[in-house]
């Protein structure tokens, strides 16, 4: 992109290239220079990406008609006007993480939950927003409006920006931060690569694990329409007619029952689990045309992996002052995950204009077989077994058209605009559960009342657009001010519905039928008006379907200027008009017993950040802002949903309101070399009415719901260091390498304030205020907040051997996943999860065979064998969910053409 008057960053890169080209001792100049800031440049200069450490500050130097005066900014985190962290393509390659979610765990103050959702500074995913090239994304998750970041393979990413202090050019839903994923762009030089990999896990690979057949094409991530909703049942769904004898004849109901696929989707077996495998193809080029440089980029990938869990799940109740387990289940599950992705991009670039069209398609399929067995308190302590066969398909498609344009004699005007459409979906056909009891000989027999077959769909789409106009105003002594204004719009709609079917034993089952194999029991022979008869359960009163919508229109104004030498200030304000609604819908055309929830709010969201560059390589930052957090659609919908990950039932609360957040940040930064720095900072957040999850007892069932806590605060300290070492006088193994030490640590503390007069509004209370202390303990931590988050990377780079190796350690301390059930003094302790320490090792080596460049990679994950553990503790430890993760290994080979 041509810019006739270079910005400070461009000048400093150019000045570094000049110094390298003319042989000037850059480091000595950097130490001796006085701070200056003036620019006069008449010729374009190529930047040298291989130049040594950049010059921090240079005195006036005249070379012909070129005069460069300025201060070098060697790191993107220093270039940024805000407190931010950056993952570069080099970082993504070094850690070898396969998805954006895994890669972001390496960033200071970030942790990952369920392998999908990123928590920034201990605040849940609802307090952060995810963007793709600056455009918002919808979510295929029933429980979240935030897109799960495991959808994005790292191969499509050029980098990730995590901005932790707010600026008004970003959406106002900003608590922990904003995560902006940047996709790869057309390269300067043409390339084509092919990568293949295999891997395995100690808990899964080559072991006999549960499976069910499904269809012949499940390995592709697509089935062969085996799971397609049968025609007569699909028509009943469309017409809104509940499947029962009141709406259909006995013969029609019999035909519907027999149309459901039987043995391939119901019969579980054991089979040796194969190795994981992956393929990836990427290529791109840039070529000049009459109207500009045309760029093309394409990345396609396929990944097939398996994961087995042998878990223990318990429920506890008080006996005296102690919790004791009253239900204990042994859970075994085996799931096959298939991911397909394709990124395609076109760009057209001239000196002053650039237009990009980026398209991304991702499809992830989870095929799971699982069983859960043990004494169940709700069944009087009798042993109950539940078998599940499941198929979940998540899809994301997004198409974005974006451009940037420079105008004016010196390019002082810049216009950016973007328009995007994104759609996600989640399809779960034939989600089946079959239940068993035990007979007098302790043999499992069918408990037909516990069978259920569900079909659910969720569609979530976003139309969005935005425009930004910036003007660079020259100031005294070569400084400048950038004045920006902009507007954006977002329309996010969601439709979700679920149909639950059940076979009813009309006259009970015979002993032989109760002991029959699952596919024999539900064979066509037994589906008739006097043995097993299909019916549709629930779905009325808005319990199984809802429509939701969020519209946000916003404008902002912002100034970024150095009014005082060495002090950069950024300030502005954003106005947002948001309208959010969730409308429960009766599947059968009746009137829902739940009223629509509507939240209409307007907010002025100011922000201010000052950066003082008090020495040539150090600076101080201070930031203050106001932001918001909105309840997620599912949290507002009074619809029960069972999460297959935790086997926990969730139900929304239509009385939730927005959260308002005050953010304060301060950070010291020292950049002492290229890609080398030390930073330390503090942060403070005050949340008015934060959304918290609580466990409630509904009859004999425990459900997780949501409420607005009165108030909470979060404060913490962050520190990060990155340093390279070289030892020239040591042995060859040592001296040939550039050694890396990179570490970050975040300590944070949160406090939920609950006064005697504070109230909350819950679904169970029917909208009436209830005493907040019944549900939340004063002084408790926020849900999801960990006191300690730390990362350590130790490794080397060897240019001679063309190799790189890194040990990667990630540690996250315990966090609350949900509030304990009960009220007042009878409330149980909170649910806790302890992620612990995870150690990985990644080794990469490039080599040449017959003139062909090849790359080898070895990745070893979870070397410490850390387990997953969620629990309650009071007198006894109740294992809510506990299983071994195992150690994983993978190897890959990349060919470059």
From TrEMBL:
Domain TonB-dependent receptor-like beta-barrel: 359-832
Gene3D superfamilies: TonB-dependent receptor, beta-barrel domain (2.40.170.20), TonB-dependent receptor, plug domain (2.170.130.10)
Location in the cell: Cell outer membrane
Domain TonB-dependent receptor plug as annotated: residue spans: 85-178
Keyword terms of this UniProt record: Cell outer membrane, Membrane, Receptor, Signal, TonB box
Signal sequence, renumbered to the chain: 1-30
The keyword Signal belongs to this UniProt entry's keyword annotation: yes
Family statement drawn from the similarity comment of this UniProt entry: Belongs to the TonB-dependent receptor family.
PANTHER family: PLUG DOMAIN-CONTAINING PROTEIN, TONB-DEPENDENT RECEPTOR
Name the record gives this protein: TonB-dependent receptor
Species of the source: Brevundimonas olei
């Amino acid at each position: 992109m041509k810019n006739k008057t270079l910005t400070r960053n461009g000048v400093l890169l150019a000045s570094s290239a000049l110094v390298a080209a003319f042989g000037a001792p850059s480091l000595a100049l950097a130490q001796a220079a006085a701070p200056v800031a003036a620019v006069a440049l008449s010729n374009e200069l190529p930047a040298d990406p291989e130049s040594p450490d950049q010059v921090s500050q240079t005195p006036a130097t005249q070379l012909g008609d070129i005069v460069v005066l300025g201060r070098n900014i060697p790191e993107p985190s220093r270039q940024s006007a805000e407190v931010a962290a950056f993952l570069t393509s080099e970082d993504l390659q070094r850690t070898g993480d396969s998805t954006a979610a895994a890669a972001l765990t390496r960033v200071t103050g970030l942790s990952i939950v369920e392998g999908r959702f990123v928590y920034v500074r201990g605040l849940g995913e609802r307090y952060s927003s995810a963007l793709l090239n600056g455009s918002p994304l919808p979510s295929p998750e029933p429980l979240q409006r935030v897109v799960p970041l495991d959808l994005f393979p790292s191969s499509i990413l050029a980098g990730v920006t995590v901005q932790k202090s707010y600026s008004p050019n970003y959406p106002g839903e900003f608590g922990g931060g904003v995560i902006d994923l940047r996709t790869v762009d057309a390269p300067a030089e043409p390339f084509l690569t092919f990568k293949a990999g295999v891997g395995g896990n100690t808990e899964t690979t080559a072991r006999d694990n549960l499976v069910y057949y499904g269809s012949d094409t499940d390995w592709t991530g697509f089935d062969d329409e085996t799971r397609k909703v049968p025609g007569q049942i699909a028509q009943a769904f469309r017409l809104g007619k509940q499947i029962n004898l009141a709406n259909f004849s006995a013969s029609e109901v019999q035909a519907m029952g027999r149309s459901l696929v039987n043995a391939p989707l119901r019969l579980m077996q054991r089979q040796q689990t194969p190795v994981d495998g992956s393929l990836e193809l990427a290529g791109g080029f840039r070529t000049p045309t009459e109207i500009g440089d045309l760029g093309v980029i394409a990345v396609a990938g396929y990944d097939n992996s398996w994961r087995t869990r042998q878990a223990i799940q318990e429920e506890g109740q008080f006996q005296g002052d102690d919790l004791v387990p009253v239900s204990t289940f042994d859970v075994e599950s085996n799931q096959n995950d298939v991911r397909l992705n394709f990124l395609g991009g076109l760009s057209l670039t001239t000196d002053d204009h650039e237009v990009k069209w980026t398209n991304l398609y991702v499809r992830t399929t989870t095929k799971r077989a699982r069983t859960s067995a043990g004494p169940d308190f709700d069944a009087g302590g009798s042993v109950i077994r539940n078998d599940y066969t499941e198929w979940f398909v998540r899809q994301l498609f997004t198409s974005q058209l974006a451009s940037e344009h420079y105008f004016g004699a010196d390019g002082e005007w810049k216009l950016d605009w973007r328009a995007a459409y994104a759609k996600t979906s989640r399809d779960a056909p034939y989600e089946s559960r079959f239940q068993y009891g035990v007979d007098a000989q302790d043999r499992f027999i069918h408990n037909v009342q516990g069978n259920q077959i569900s079909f659910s769909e969720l569609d979530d789409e976003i139309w969005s657009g935005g425009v930004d106009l910036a003007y660079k105003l020259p100031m005294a002594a070569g400084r400048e001010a950038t004045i920006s204004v902009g507007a954006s719009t977002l329309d996010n709609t969601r439709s979700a519905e679920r149909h639950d079917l059940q076979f009813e034993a009309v006259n009970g089952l015979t002993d032989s039928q109760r002991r029959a194999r699952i596919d024999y029991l539900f064979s066509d022979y037994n589906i008739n008006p006097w043995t097993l008869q299909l019916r549709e359960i629930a779905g009325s009163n808005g319990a199984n379907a809802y429509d939701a919508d969020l519209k946000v229109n916003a404008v902002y104004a912002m100034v970024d200027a150095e009014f005082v030498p060495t002090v950069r200030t950024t300030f502005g304000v954003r106005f947002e008009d948001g309208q959010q609604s969730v409308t429960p819908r009766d599947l059968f055309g009746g009137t829902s017993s739940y009223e629509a929830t509507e939240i209409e709010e307007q907010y002025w969201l100011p922000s201010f950040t000052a950066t003082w560059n008090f020495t040539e390589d150090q600076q101080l930052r201070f930031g203050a802002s106001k932001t918001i957090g909105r309840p997620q659609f599912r949290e507002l919908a009074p619809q029960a949903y069972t999460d297959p990950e935790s086997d926990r039932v969730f139900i929304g609360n239509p009385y939730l309101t927005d959260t308002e957040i005050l953010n304060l940040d301060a950070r010291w930064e020292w950049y002492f070399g290229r890609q080398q720095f030390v930073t330390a900072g503090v942060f403070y957040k005050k949340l008015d009415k934060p959304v918290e999850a609580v466990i409630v007892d509904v009859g004999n069932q425990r459900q997780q719901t949501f409420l607005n806590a009165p108030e909470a605060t979060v404060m913490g300290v962050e520190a990060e260091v990155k340093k390279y070492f070289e030892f020239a006088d040591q042995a060859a193994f040592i001296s040939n390498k550039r050694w890396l030490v990179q570490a970050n640590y975040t300590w944070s503390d949160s406090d939920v304030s609950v006064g005697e007069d504070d109230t909350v509004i819950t679904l169970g209370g029917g909208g009436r205020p209830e005493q907040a202390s019944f549900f939340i303990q004063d002084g408790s931590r926020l849900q999801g907040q960990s006191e300690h988050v730390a990362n350590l990377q130790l490794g080397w780079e060897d240019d001679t051997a063309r190799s790189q190796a890194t040990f990667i350690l990630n540690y996250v301390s315990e966090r609350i996943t949900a509030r304990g059930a009960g009220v007042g003094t009878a409330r149980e302790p909170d649910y806790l999860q302890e992620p612990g320490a995870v150690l990985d090792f990644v080794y990469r080596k490039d080599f040449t065979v017959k003139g062909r460049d090849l790359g080898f990679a070895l990745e070893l994950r979870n070397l410490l064998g850390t387990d997953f553990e969620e629990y309650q503790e009071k007198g006894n430890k109740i294992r809510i969910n506990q299983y071994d993760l195992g150690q994983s290994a993978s190897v890959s080979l990349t060919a470059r053409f």
